[in-house]
Amino acid sequence: MRRAARALLALAAAAALTLAGAGAAARASAPAAPAPSYVENGYQDPVTALPPVTRPDTPHCTVTVMRHDFANSYGQPYTGTVTPPAQCAGPWSKVVLTWSGSVQGRQYDRLAGVWIGGAEVLRTSTPEPDDDGITWHVDKDVTAFTPLLRTPQPLVADLGNLVNSTYTGVYHMTLTLTYYTADRRHPAPALADRVVPLSGNSTTAAGWYDLAPGQSATASVVLPRNLVTARLEVYARGGGCDEQWFDSVPSDLAAQAPDYLCGGGSYREVQVAVDGRPAGLAQPYPVVYSGGIVPTLWRPIPAVDQFLTLPYDLDLTPFAGLLVDGKPHTVTLTPYGAADTWTVDGTLFLTTDHHAARTSGALTADTVGTSPAVSTTEQPAGDGSTAVHTATTRDWVTQGYVDTSRGRITTRVAQRTAYTNDDTVSDGGRHQVVRQRDTGATTVTTSTARDEGAVRTARHAWSYPVDVDLSVPVYTDGDNYQLSGSVRQQRVLTDSVRAGRSGAWRPVAVTDDTVTATGVLARQAGTVVSSDGTGSEHWLGTTDTGGCWDRTLTAAHGWLTADVTRPCRLPSDPGPGSNGGSLTR
Protein backbone atom coordinates (compact mmCIF):
# COMPACT_ATOMS: atom_id res chain seq x y z
CA MET A 1 0.00 0.00 0.00
CA ARG A 2 1.90 2.98 -1.23
CA ARG A 3 0.28 5.84 -3.10
CA ALA A 4 -1.55 8.76 -1.42
CA ALA A 5 -4.69 6.87 -0.39
CA ARG A 6 -2.80 3.65 0.23
CA ALA A 7 -0.19 5.40 2.36
CA LEU A 8 -2.95 6.52 4.72
CA LEU A 9 -4.58 3.10 4.51
CA ALA A 10 -1.29 1.52 5.52
CA LEU A 11 -1.22 3.70 8.61
CA ALA A 12 -4.81 2.82 9.40
CA ALA A 13 -4.28 -0.87 8.67
CA ALA A 14 -1.37 -1.12 11.09
CA ALA A 15 -3.51 0.58 13.73
CA ALA A 16 -6.44 -1.69 12.92
CA LEU A 17 -4.42 -4.74 13.93
CA THR A 18 -4.99 -3.93 17.59
CA LEU A 19 -8.45 -2.39 17.37
CA ALA A 20 -10.38 -5.52 16.44
CA GLY A 21 -11.74 -6.11 19.91
CA ALA A 22 -12.84 -2.51 20.31
CA GLY A 23 -14.36 -2.56 16.85
CA ALA A 24 -16.41 -5.66 17.63
CA ALA A 25 -17.82 -4.02 20.74
CA ALA A 26 -18.70 -0.83 18.89
CA ARG A 27 -20.46 -2.39 15.91
CA ALA A 28 -23.93 -2.14 17.44
CA SER A 29 -23.85 1.67 17.31
CA ALA A 30 -21.80 2.00 14.11
CA PRO A 31 -23.20 2.38 10.57
CA ALA A 32 -23.89 -0.78 8.59
CA ALA A 33 -20.66 -2.69 8.03
CA PRO A 34 -19.49 -3.87 4.61
CA ALA A 35 -19.85 -7.59 4.01
CA PRO A 36 -18.30 -9.68 5.44
CA SER A 37 -18.61 -8.02 8.85
CA TYR A 38 -16.50 -10.51 10.79
CA VAL A 39 -13.82 -8.85 12.88
CA GLU A 40 -10.71 -10.83 13.76
CA ASN A 41 -9.91 -10.92 17.45
CA GLY A 42 -6.20 -11.65 17.31
CA TYR A 43 -4.39 -14.27 15.25
CA GLN A 44 -1.79 -16.92 15.78
CA ASP A 45 1.95 -16.76 15.29
CA PRO A 46 3.18 -16.89 11.67
CA VAL A 47 3.66 -20.37 10.22
CA THR A 48 4.95 -21.54 6.84
CA ALA A 49 4.93 -24.85 4.96
CA LEU A 50 8.65 -24.68 4.14
CA PRO A 51 10.73 -27.71 5.13
CA PRO A 52 12.88 -27.19 8.21
CA VAL A 53 16.63 -26.80 7.86
CA THR A 54 18.05 -30.23 8.65
CA ARG A 55 20.47 -30.59 11.54
CA PRO A 56 23.35 -33.12 11.37
CA ASP A 57 23.58 -35.60 14.23
CA THR A 58 27.05 -34.45 15.28
CA PRO A 59 28.48 -32.54 18.26
CA HIS A 60 27.48 -28.90 17.94
CA CYS A 61 27.65 -25.52 19.67
CA THR A 62 25.01 -22.80 19.65
CA VAL A 63 26.27 -19.27 20.16
CA THR A 64 23.94 -16.35 20.84
CA VAL A 65 25.55 -13.49 18.95
CA MET A 66 22.80 -10.91 19.49
CA ARG A 67 19.93 -10.07 21.81
CA HIS A 68 18.58 -6.65 20.97
CA ASP A 69 15.41 -4.57 21.03
CA PHE A 70 14.77 -2.54 17.88
CA ALA A 71 12.62 0.46 18.87
CA ASN A 72 13.59 3.84 17.37
CA SER A 73 16.30 2.15 15.38
CA TYR A 74 16.54 3.86 11.99
CA GLY A 75 20.23 4.38 11.37
CA GLN A 76 21.04 2.56 14.61
CA PRO A 77 21.85 -1.08 13.79
CA TYR A 78 23.14 -3.58 16.30
CA THR A 79 26.90 -4.12 16.03
CA GLY A 80 28.98 -6.85 17.62
CA THR A 81 31.40 -9.66 16.85
CA VAL A 82 30.94 -13.25 15.72
CA THR A 83 33.63 -15.58 17.07
CA PRO A 84 33.76 -19.32 16.31
CA PRO A 85 33.29 -21.37 19.50
CA ALA A 86 36.45 -23.04 20.80
CA GLN A 87 34.48 -26.20 21.64
CA CYS A 88 33.41 -26.53 17.97
CA ALA A 89 36.43 -25.11 16.20
CA GLY A 90 35.70 -26.87 12.92
CA PRO A 91 35.71 -28.12 10.30
CA TRP A 92 31.90 -27.92 10.20
CA SER A 93 29.42 -29.97 8.26
CA LYS A 94 26.84 -27.20 8.58
CA VAL A 95 26.32 -23.79 10.17
CA VAL A 96 22.75 -22.66 10.81
CA LEU A 97 21.64 -19.10 11.56
CA THR A 98 18.43 -18.58 13.55
CA TRP A 99 16.71 -15.18 13.60
CA SER A 100 13.89 -15.14 16.14
CA GLY A 101 11.74 -12.39 17.55
CA SER A 102 8.61 -11.21 19.27
CA VAL A 103 6.55 -8.04 19.01
CA GLN A 104 3.39 -6.78 20.64
CA GLY A 105 1.10 -3.81 19.98
CA ARG A 106 0.88 -1.91 16.70
CA GLN A 107 3.64 -1.80 14.13
CA TYR A 108 4.47 -1.77 10.44
CA ASP A 109 6.25 -4.50 8.54
CA ARG A 110 9.96 -3.73 8.52
CA LEU A 111 12.91 -4.74 6.34
CA ALA A 112 15.85 -6.35 8.15
CA GLY A 113 19.28 -7.71 7.27
CA VAL A 114 22.30 -9.38 8.89
CA TRP A 115 25.96 -8.99 7.85
CA ILE A 116 28.93 -11.06 9.02
CA GLY A 117 32.37 -9.91 7.96
CA GLY A 118 30.70 -7.39 5.67
CA ALA A 119 28.70 -10.03 3.77
CA GLU A 120 24.90 -10.05 3.89
CA VAL A 121 23.96 -13.49 5.22
CA LEU A 122 20.23 -12.90 5.80
CA ARG A 123 17.56 -10.63 4.37
CA THR A 124 14.09 -10.73 5.87
CA SER A 125 11.08 -8.65 6.84
CA THR A 126 8.86 -8.67 9.90
CA PRO A 127 5.25 -9.63 10.57
CA GLU A 128 2.73 -7.09 11.85
CA PRO A 129 1.66 -7.81 15.45
CA ASP A 130 -1.55 -7.73 17.47
CA ASP A 131 -2.23 -6.68 21.07
CA ASP A 132 -1.50 -10.17 22.41
CA GLY A 133 1.85 -10.26 20.63
CA ILE A 134 3.35 -12.77 18.21
CA THR A 135 6.61 -14.66 17.93
CA TRP A 136 8.36 -16.10 14.89
CA HIS A 137 11.72 -17.34 13.73
CA VAL A 138 13.67 -17.91 10.54
CA ASP A 139 16.37 -20.58 10.07
CA LYS A 140 18.94 -20.34 7.31
CA ASP A 141 21.86 -22.55 6.30
CA VAL A 142 24.86 -20.20 6.13
CA THR A 143 27.54 -22.86 5.62
CA ALA A 144 28.57 -21.20 2.34
CA PHE A 145 30.00 -18.34 4.42
CA THR A 146 32.42 -20.66 6.28
CA PRO A 147 35.52 -18.89 4.87
CA LEU A 148 34.43 -15.84 6.88
CA LEU A 149 33.16 -17.76 9.92
CA ARG A 150 36.49 -19.41 10.68
CA THR A 151 37.82 -16.22 12.29
CA PRO A 152 36.26 -13.45 14.43
CA GLN A 153 34.21 -11.13 12.25
CA PRO A 154 32.20 -7.94 12.75
CA LEU A 155 28.45 -8.44 13.02
CA VAL A 156 25.78 -5.95 11.94
CA ALA A 157 22.02 -6.48 12.25
CA ASP A 158 19.71 -3.77 10.94
CA LEU A 159 15.97 -3.46 11.53
CA GLY A 160 14.83 0.12 11.09
CA ASN A 161 11.81 0.73 13.34
CA LEU A 162 9.83 3.66 14.72
CA VAL A 163 8.00 3.69 18.06
CA ASN A 164 5.62 6.44 19.20
CA SER A 165 2.24 6.83 20.90
CA THR A 166 0.47 5.17 17.95
CA TYR A 167 2.94 2.58 16.72
CA THR A 168 4.04 0.86 19.88
CA GLY A 169 5.58 -2.40 18.71
CA VAL A 170 9.19 -3.00 19.72
CA TYR A 171 10.91 -5.87 17.93
CA HIS A 172 12.71 -8.06 20.50
CA MET A 173 15.20 -10.02 18.41
CA THR A 174 17.68 -12.83 19.06
CA LEU A 175 20.30 -14.12 16.62
CA THR A 176 22.13 -17.42 17.08
CA LEU A 177 24.63 -19.47 15.10
CA THR A 178 24.84 -23.24 15.54
CA TYR A 179 28.06 -24.92 14.40
CA TYR A 180 27.81 -28.65 13.59
CA THR A 181 31.18 -30.40 13.58
CA ALA A 182 32.08 -32.63 10.64
CA ASP A 183 32.62 -36.39 10.89
CA ARG A 184 32.89 -39.33 8.50
CA ARG A 185 29.13 -39.54 7.94
CA HIS A 186 28.71 -35.75 7.79
CA PRO A 187 31.84 -34.36 6.07
CA ALA A 188 32.50 -30.70 5.51
CA PRO A 189 31.07 -29.70 2.11
CA ALA A 190 33.14 -28.34 -0.76
CA LEU A 191 32.97 -24.55 -0.54
CA ALA A 192 34.36 -21.43 -2.12
CA ASP A 193 37.92 -20.55 -1.09
CA ARG A 194 37.09 -16.91 -0.51
CA VAL A 195 33.98 -14.85 0.21
CA VAL A 196 34.23 -11.21 -0.88
CA PRO A 197 31.46 -8.81 0.20
CA LEU A 198 30.34 -6.08 -2.19
CA SER A 199 28.42 -4.35 0.60
CA GLY A 200 28.92 -0.78 1.68
CA ASN A 201 30.34 0.05 5.10
CA SER A 202 28.75 -3.05 6.61
CA THR A 203 31.22 -3.57 9.46
CA THR A 204 29.58 -0.75 11.42
CA ALA A 205 26.38 -0.03 9.48
CA ALA A 206 23.84 -1.74 7.26
CA GLY A 207 25.69 -2.80 4.14
CA TRP A 208 22.92 -2.60 1.58
CA TYR A 209 22.61 0.18 -0.99
CA ASP A 210 19.35 2.17 -1.12
CA LEU A 211 19.07 3.22 -4.76
CA ALA A 212 16.75 5.85 -6.18
CA PRO A 213 15.47 5.44 -9.77
CA GLY A 214 18.35 5.59 -12.20
CA GLN A 215 21.02 4.91 -9.58
CA SER A 216 23.49 2.02 -9.43
CA ALA A 217 25.68 0.52 -6.70
CA THR A 218 29.34 -0.06 -7.53
CA ALA A 219 31.92 -1.87 -5.42
CA SER A 220 35.66 -2.05 -6.15
CA VAL A 221 37.50 -5.28 -5.35
CA VAL A 222 40.94 -6.82 -5.91
CA LEU A 223 40.57 -10.54 -6.61
CA PRO A 224 43.05 -13.44 -6.25
CA ARG A 225 45.55 -13.76 -9.09
CA ASN A 226 44.87 -17.53 -9.25
CA LEU A 227 41.11 -17.16 -9.64
CA VAL A 228 39.25 -20.07 -11.27
CA THR A 229 35.51 -19.43 -10.71
CA ALA A 230 33.37 -16.52 -9.50
CA ARG A 231 29.76 -16.68 -8.37
CA LEU A 232 27.78 -13.57 -7.42
CA GLU A 233 24.93 -13.69 -4.91
CA VAL A 234 22.57 -10.70 -5.25
CA TYR A 235 19.82 -9.39 -2.96
CA ALA A 236 17.28 -6.96 -4.39
CA ARG A 237 13.97 -5.75 -2.97
CA GLY A 238 11.83 -2.77 -3.92
CA GLY A 239 10.49 -0.11 -1.56
CA GLY A 240 7.79 2.55 -1.64
CA CYS A 241 5.89 2.36 -4.92
CA ASP A 242 8.19 -0.49 -5.94
CA GLU A 243 7.24 -2.71 -2.99
CA GLN A 244 4.57 -4.06 -5.33
CA TRP A 245 6.19 -3.14 -8.63
CA PHE A 246 4.16 -5.82 -10.40
CA ASP A 247 0.96 -3.72 -10.11
CA SER A 248 2.60 -0.48 -11.27
CA VAL A 249 1.14 0.95 -14.48
CA PRO A 250 2.46 3.29 -17.19
CA SER A 251 3.06 6.76 -15.79
CA ASP A 252 0.44 8.42 -18.00
CA LEU A 253 -2.23 6.10 -16.60
CA ALA A 254 -0.98 6.52 -13.03
CA ALA A 255 -1.29 10.30 -13.44
CA GLN A 256 -5.05 9.87 -13.95
CA ALA A 257 -5.46 8.32 -10.48
CA PRO A 258 -2.37 9.32 -8.45
CA ASP A 259 -4.09 8.49 -5.14
CA TYR A 260 -4.31 4.80 -6.07
CA LEU A 261 -1.80 3.98 -8.81
CA CYS A 262 1.99 3.91 -9.10
CA GLY A 263 3.71 4.69 -12.38
CA GLY A 264 6.81 3.47 -14.12
CA GLY A 265 5.31 0.32 -15.60
CA SER A 266 5.58 -3.22 -14.24
CA TYR A 267 8.84 -4.65 -15.61
CA ARG A 268 11.94 -4.84 -13.39
CA GLU A 269 15.28 -6.61 -13.67
CA VAL A 270 18.57 -6.35 -11.77
CA GLN A 271 21.51 -5.83 -14.11
CA VAL A 272 25.10 -6.72 -13.23
CA ALA A 273 28.20 -5.22 -14.84
CA VAL A 274 31.89 -6.03 -14.44
CA ASP A 275 34.19 -3.06 -15.07
CA GLY A 276 31.24 -1.38 -16.76
CA ARG A 277 30.65 -4.28 -19.16
CA PRO A 278 27.21 -6.00 -18.95
CA ALA A 279 27.75 -9.39 -17.29
CA GLY A 280 24.32 -10.82 -16.44
CA LEU A 281 20.96 -10.11 -14.89
CA ALA A 282 18.45 -11.43 -12.36
CA GLN A 283 14.67 -11.45 -12.52
CA PRO A 284 13.36 -10.37 -9.09
CA TYR A 285 10.63 -12.33 -7.34
CA PRO A 286 7.37 -10.37 -6.67
CA VAL A 287 7.70 -10.28 -2.87
CA VAL A 288 4.82 -8.91 -0.77
CA TYR A 289 5.39 -7.53 2.73
CA SER A 290 3.12 -8.62 5.60
CA GLY A 291 1.21 -5.33 5.35
CA GLY A 292 0.99 -5.45 1.57
CA ILE A 293 -2.17 -5.36 -0.58
CA VAL A 294 -4.49 -6.21 2.37
CA PRO A 295 -2.81 -7.06 5.70
CA THR A 296 -5.39 -9.73 6.56
CA LEU A 297 -4.18 -11.80 3.60
CA TRP A 298 -1.07 -12.87 5.52
CA ARG A 299 -2.38 -14.01 8.92
CA PRO A 300 -0.93 -16.42 9.88
CA ILE A 301 0.51 -17.73 6.56
CA PRO A 302 3.03 -15.24 5.10
CA ALA A 303 3.57 -14.52 1.43
CA VAL A 304 6.33 -16.31 -0.48
CA ASP A 305 9.73 -14.78 0.38
CA GLN A 306 8.24 -12.60 3.11
CA PHE A 307 10.42 -13.89 5.97
CA LEU A 308 13.22 -15.72 4.12
CA THR A 309 14.21 -13.67 1.09
CA LEU A 310 16.16 -15.78 -1.39
CA PRO A 311 19.14 -14.18 -3.17
CA TYR A 312 19.77 -14.55 -6.90
CA ASP A 313 22.87 -16.36 -8.20
CA LEU A 314 24.85 -15.18 -11.23
CA ASP A 315 27.87 -17.03 -12.61
CA LEU A 316 30.60 -14.50 -13.48
CA THR A 317 33.25 -17.14 -14.28
CA PRO A 318 33.41 -16.13 -17.99
CA PHE A 319 34.93 -12.85 -16.73
CA ALA A 320 37.48 -14.52 -14.43
CA GLY A 321 40.33 -14.23 -16.94
CA LEU A 322 39.94 -10.44 -16.91
CA LEU A 323 40.08 -10.20 -13.12
CA VAL A 324 43.42 -11.89 -12.27
CA ASP A 325 45.78 -9.00 -12.91
CA GLY A 326 45.94 -7.89 -9.27
CA LYS A 327 44.29 -4.55 -10.06
CA PRO A 328 41.01 -3.14 -8.68
CA HIS A 329 37.90 -4.14 -10.59
CA THR A 330 34.31 -2.98 -10.23
CA VAL A 331 31.03 -4.85 -9.92
CA THR A 332 27.90 -2.75 -10.47
CA LEU A 333 24.27 -3.55 -9.59
CA THR A 334 21.46 -1.63 -11.33
CA PRO A 335 17.70 -2.11 -10.75
CA TYR A 336 16.44 -1.56 -14.31
CA GLY A 337 13.04 0.11 -14.60
CA ALA A 338 12.93 1.19 -10.96
CA ALA A 339 10.34 3.87 -10.17
CA ASP A 340 11.16 4.06 -6.46
CA THR A 341 13.86 2.95 -4.02
CA TRP A 342 15.47 -0.48 -4.36
CA THR A 343 17.63 -2.05 -1.66
CA VAL A 344 20.43 -4.11 -3.24
CA ASP A 345 23.57 -5.89 -2.09
CA GLY A 346 25.92 -8.62 -3.27
CA THR A 347 28.62 -11.11 -2.30
CA LEU A 348 31.23 -12.90 -4.43
CA PHE A 349 32.09 -16.57 -3.82
CA LEU A 350 35.45 -17.44 -5.38
CA THR A 351 37.45 -20.61 -6.01
CA THR A 352 41.17 -20.52 -6.69
CA ASP A 353 43.83 -22.76 -8.21
CA HIS A 354 45.47 -24.62 -5.32
CA HIS A 355 48.41 -25.67 -7.51
CA ALA A 356 49.25 -22.40 -9.23
CA ALA A 357 49.99 -18.89 -8.02
CA ARG A 358 48.46 -17.35 -11.13
CA THR A 359 45.86 -18.10 -13.73
CA SER A 360 45.11 -16.26 -16.95
CA GLY A 361 42.29 -16.15 -19.46
CA ALA A 362 39.92 -14.11 -21.58
CA LEU A 363 36.29 -13.24 -22.17
CA THR A 364 35.30 -14.59 -25.60
CA ALA A 365 31.59 -13.73 -25.85
CA ASP A 366 29.18 -11.28 -24.22
CA THR A 367 25.74 -10.52 -25.68
CA VAL A 368 24.10 -9.13 -22.53
CA GLY A 369 22.23 -5.94 -23.34
CA THR A 370 21.28 -3.15 -20.93
CA SER A 371 18.10 -2.03 -22.72
CA PRO A 372 15.50 -4.81 -22.86
CA ALA A 373 12.86 -4.45 -25.56
CA VAL A 374 9.83 -3.95 -23.31
CA SER A 375 6.53 -3.47 -25.15
CA THR A 376 3.54 -1.88 -23.39
CA THR A 377 0.04 -1.30 -24.75
CA GLU A 378 -2.96 0.42 -23.14
CA GLN A 379 -6.50 -0.35 -24.31
CA PRO A 380 -9.32 1.76 -22.81
CA ALA A 381 -12.74 0.11 -22.73
CA GLY A 382 -16.24 1.53 -22.85
CA ASP A 383 -16.84 0.81 -19.17
CA GLY A 384 -14.03 3.15 -18.17
CA SER A 385 -11.46 0.41 -17.51
CA THR A 386 -8.05 0.21 -19.15
CA ALA A 387 -6.25 -3.02 -20.03
CA VAL A 388 -2.46 -2.77 -19.88
CA HIS A 389 -0.27 -5.45 -21.46
CA THR A 390 3.50 -5.51 -20.90
CA ALA A 391 5.87 -8.08 -22.37
CA THR A 392 9.52 -8.74 -23.05
CA THR A 393 11.96 -11.58 -23.63
CA ARG A 394 15.69 -11.84 -22.93
CA ASP A 395 18.24 -14.13 -24.57
CA TRP A 396 21.94 -13.68 -23.90
CA VAL A 397 25.28 -15.51 -23.60
CA THR A 398 28.62 -14.90 -21.90
CA GLN A 399 31.63 -17.15 -22.42
CA GLY A 400 35.25 -17.13 -21.33
CA TYR A 401 38.16 -19.34 -20.36
CA VAL A 402 40.74 -19.62 -17.60
CA ASP A 403 44.11 -21.37 -18.03
CA THR A 404 44.78 -23.31 -14.83
CA SER A 405 47.04 -26.08 -13.55
CA ARG A 406 44.37 -28.50 -14.81
CA GLY A 407 44.45 -26.96 -18.27
CA ARG A 408 42.06 -24.58 -19.97
CA ILE A 409 38.57 -24.43 -18.45
CA THR A 410 35.87 -22.82 -20.57
CA THR A 411 32.60 -21.61 -19.09
CA ARG A 412 29.52 -20.65 -21.10
CA VAL A 413 26.52 -18.99 -19.42
CA ALA A 414 23.27 -18.74 -21.40
CA GLN A 415 19.97 -17.30 -20.19
CA ARG A 416 16.50 -17.07 -21.70
CA THR A 417 13.57 -15.32 -20.05
CA ALA A 418 9.98 -14.48 -20.94
CA TYR A 419 7.84 -11.93 -19.11
CA THR A 420 4.21 -10.81 -19.45
CA ASN A 421 2.00 -8.66 -17.24
CA ASP A 422 -1.70 -8.04 -17.85
CA ASP A 423 -3.35 -5.45 -15.61
CA THR A 424 -6.96 -4.28 -15.87
CA VAL A 425 -7.49 -0.97 -14.08
CA SER A 426 -11.02 0.24 -13.35
CA ASP A 427 -13.13 2.40 -11.03
CA GLY A 428 -10.74 5.32 -11.25
CA GLY A 429 -7.78 3.21 -10.13
CA ARG A 430 -9.64 1.70 -7.17
CA HIS A 431 -9.71 -1.77 -8.72
CA GLN A 432 -6.84 -3.68 -10.29
CA VAL A 433 -6.70 -7.23 -11.60
CA VAL A 434 -3.12 -8.30 -12.32
CA ARG A 435 -1.83 -11.46 -13.98
CA GLN A 436 1.98 -11.65 -14.22
CA ARG A 437 4.07 -14.49 -15.63
CA ASP A 438 7.86 -14.51 -15.39
CA THR A 439 9.77 -17.61 -16.52
CA GLY A 440 13.32 -18.36 -17.52
CA ALA A 441 16.34 -20.62 -17.33
CA THR A 442 20.07 -20.11 -16.95
CA THR A 443 22.38 -22.84 -18.28
CA VAL A 444 26.06 -22.99 -17.31
CA THR A 445 28.30 -25.32 -19.35
CA THR A 446 31.85 -26.05 -18.17
CA SER A 447 34.42 -27.93 -20.26
CA THR A 448 38.08 -28.81 -19.70
CA ALA A 449 40.40 -28.87 -22.71
CA ARG A 450 42.59 -31.61 -21.24
CA ASP A 451 39.68 -34.07 -21.40
CA GLU A 452 37.14 -33.59 -24.18
CA GLY A 453 34.62 -35.66 -22.27
CA ALA A 454 34.84 -33.52 -19.14
CA VAL A 455 31.78 -31.44 -19.88
CA ARG A 456 29.28 -30.60 -17.17
CA THR A 457 26.11 -28.56 -17.56
CA ALA A 458 23.96 -27.12 -14.81
CA ARG A 459 20.57 -25.52 -15.41
CA HIS A 460 18.55 -23.32 -13.07
CA ALA A 461 14.96 -22.75 -14.20
CA TRP A 462 12.30 -20.61 -12.57
CA SER A 463 8.67 -19.61 -12.86
CA TYR A 464 7.10 -16.77 -10.83
CA PRO A 465 3.35 -16.57 -11.52
CA VAL A 466 1.33 -14.08 -9.49
CA ASP A 467 -2.37 -13.14 -9.71
CA VAL A 468 -3.77 -10.21 -7.72
CA ASP A 469 -7.28 -8.78 -7.46
CA LEU A 470 -7.24 -5.61 -5.32
CA SER A 471 -10.21 -3.33 -4.67
CA VAL A 472 -10.57 -0.11 -2.64
CA PRO A 473 -14.34 0.46 -3.12
CA VAL A 474 -14.53 3.10 -0.38
CA TYR A 475 -11.87 5.54 0.67
CA THR A 476 -12.61 8.77 2.50
CA ASP A 477 -9.69 8.94 4.89
CA GLY A 478 -7.70 6.70 7.23
CA ASP A 479 -10.75 6.24 9.46
CA ASN A 480 -13.25 5.42 6.71
CA TYR A 481 -12.34 2.91 4.01
CA GLN A 482 -12.82 -0.59 2.63
CA LEU A 483 -10.12 -2.89 1.29
CA SER A 484 -10.51 -6.32 -0.27
CA GLY A 485 -8.14 -8.50 -2.19
CA SER A 486 -7.20 -11.97 -3.34
CA VAL A 487 -3.75 -13.24 -4.27
CA ARG A 488 -2.26 -16.37 -5.75
CA GLN A 489 1.52 -16.41 -5.93
CA GLN A 490 3.85 -19.25 -6.78
CA ARG A 491 7.57 -19.90 -7.06
CA VAL A 492 8.79 -22.93 -9.01
CA LEU A 493 12.55 -23.56 -9.06
CA THR A 494 14.34 -26.49 -10.69
CA ASP A 495 18.08 -27.16 -10.57
CA SER A 496 19.34 -29.92 -12.86
CA VAL A 497 22.72 -31.23 -14.03
CA ARG A 498 23.98 -33.48 -16.78
CA ALA A 499 27.34 -34.99 -17.70
CA GLY A 500 28.67 -34.87 -21.24
CA ARG A 501 27.19 -32.91 -24.12
CA SER A 502 24.01 -34.93 -24.55
CA GLY A 503 23.49 -36.82 -21.31
CA ALA A 504 20.18 -37.04 -19.51
CA TRP A 505 19.21 -34.21 -17.18
CA ARG A 506 19.15 -35.13 -13.51
CA PRO A 507 17.21 -32.91 -11.10
CA VAL A 508 19.10 -32.10 -7.91
CA ALA A 509 16.70 -29.60 -6.31
CA VAL A 510 13.06 -28.71 -6.93
CA THR A 511 10.78 -26.20 -5.19
CA ASP A 512 7.10 -25.54 -5.87
CA ASP A 513 5.73 -23.06 -3.31
CA THR A 514 2.16 -21.78 -3.77
CA VAL A 515 0.31 -19.34 -1.50
CA THR A 516 -3.33 -18.30 -2.04
CA ALA A 517 -5.13 -15.81 0.18
CA THR A 518 -8.18 -13.56 0.44
CA GLY A 519 -8.61 -10.65 2.81
CA VAL A 520 -10.89 -7.76 3.75
CA LEU A 521 -10.33 -4.79 6.03
CA ALA A 522 -12.66 -1.85 6.66
CA ARG A 523 -13.15 0.97 9.12
CA GLN A 524 -16.06 3.34 9.70
CA ALA A 525 -15.67 6.44 11.85
CA GLY A 526 -12.38 5.05 13.11
CA THR A 527 -13.84 1.70 14.16
CA VAL A 528 -12.84 -1.61 12.59
CA VAL A 529 -16.05 -3.07 11.16
CA SER A 530 -14.58 -5.79 8.96
CA SER A 531 -11.30 -7.67 9.37
CA ASP A 532 -10.95 -11.19 8.03
CA GLY A 533 -8.91 -13.43 5.80
CA THR A 534 -8.33 -16.94 4.50
CA GLY A 535 -5.12 -18.48 3.26
CA SER A 536 -3.35 -21.62 2.21
CA GLU A 537 0.16 -22.70 1.31
CA HIS A 538 1.34 -25.81 -0.49
CA TRP A 539 5.09 -26.47 -0.51
CA LEU A 540 6.30 -29.43 -2.56
CA GLY A 541 9.96 -30.05 -3.28
CA THR A 542 13.34 -31.33 -2.19
CA THR A 543 14.81 -30.72 1.24
CA ASP A 544 18.38 -29.55 1.80
CA THR A 545 19.47 -33.20 2.04
CA GLY A 546 17.71 -34.26 -1.16
CA GLY A 547 14.61 -35.79 0.41
CA CYS A 548 11.05 -34.97 -0.61
CA TRP A 549 8.78 -32.60 1.38
CA ASP A 550 5.04 -32.09 0.82
CA ARG A 551 3.14 -29.92 3.29
CA THR A 552 -0.17 -28.05 3.03
CA LEU A 553 -1.46 -25.38 5.42
CA THR A 554 -4.92 -23.80 5.41
CA ALA A 555 -6.14 -20.96 7.60
CA ALA A 556 -9.23 -18.84 8.29
CA HIS A 557 -9.93 -15.94 10.62
CA GLY A 558 -6.22 -15.71 11.50
CA TRP A 559 -5.83 -19.32 12.67
CA LEU A 560 -4.70 -22.58 11.09
CA THR A 561 -7.53 -24.94 10.24
CA ALA A 562 -5.40 -27.74 8.75
CA ASP A 563 -1.74 -28.77 8.63
CA VAL A 564 -1.03 -31.87 6.53
CA THR A 565 2.33 -33.40 5.62
CA ARG A 566 2.25 -36.16 3.00
CA PRO A 567 4.78 -38.65 1.63
CA CYS A 568 6.05 -37.80 -1.86
CA ARG A 569 8.67 -38.84 -4.38
CA LEU A 570 11.14 -36.94 -6.51
CA PRO A 571 10.51 -36.27 -10.20
CA SER A 572 12.34 -37.00 -13.38
CA ASP A 573 13.65 -33.93 -15.14
CA PRO A 574 11.26 -32.57 -17.81
CA GLY A 575 14.07 -31.43 -20.10
CA PRO A 576 15.46 -28.08 -21.25
CA GLY A 577 12.18 -26.90 -22.76
CA SER A 578 10.49 -26.77 -19.36
CA ASN A 579 10.78 -24.23 -16.56
CA GLY A 580 10.03 -26.59 -13.70
CA GLY A 581 9.88 -30.17 -12.60
CA SER A 582 6.76 -31.79 -11.15
CA LEU A 583 6.83 -33.76 -7.97
CA THR A 584 4.18 -36.34 -7.20
CA ARG A 585 2.55 -37.63 -4.06
TrEMBL record:
Coiled coil: none annotated. Keywords: Signal. InterPro entries: PNGase_A, PNGaseA_N, TAT_signal. Residues 367-379 have a biased composition (Polar residues). PROSITE patterns: TAT. Residues 1-24 form the signal peptide. Residues 367-388, 565-585 are annotated as: Disordered. It holds the Pfam family PNGase_A_C. Residues 57-365 form the Peptide N-acetyl-beta-D-glucosaminyl asparaginase amidase A N-terminal domain. This is Peptide N-acetyl-beta-D-glucosaminyl asparaginase amidase A N-terminal domain-containing protein.
